[in-house]
Design brief:
alpha+beta; 2 domains; three-stranded antiparallel sheet; 3 helices; 43% helix; 18% strand; binds zinc ion
Length: 77
């Protein structure tokens, strides 16, 4: 089951947009020239995915199942 996220800025609940950090061009160059830095760069990119709200692009959606989101949803109605 996909995790849904709640946006604290606009109240949207849904799947966030996910962007990878860094660029694939740098990743390829590092892999071609230096295997080890390329490996670390790939791991760094995979570990750092940024989430953005689909509606307002706020960079801080929280899991919809979290207590904070539940409180917001109960209060807004
Ligand atoms: Zn939003």
């Amino acid at each position: 089951m996909a995790t849904e996220f709640f946006c604290t800025s606009c109240g949207t609940v849904g799947k966030p947009r996910v962007r990878n950090r860094g660029s694939s061009a740098i990743e390829i160059i590092l892999w071609l020239c230096f295997i080890i830095p390329g490996l670390f760069y790939t791991l760094w990119r995979m570990g750092r995915k940024d989430r953005y709200c689909r509606n307002c692009n706020a960079p801080n959606p929280i899991p919809a199942s979290s207590p904070m989101a539940q409180r917001h949803l109960a209060g807004v109605r």
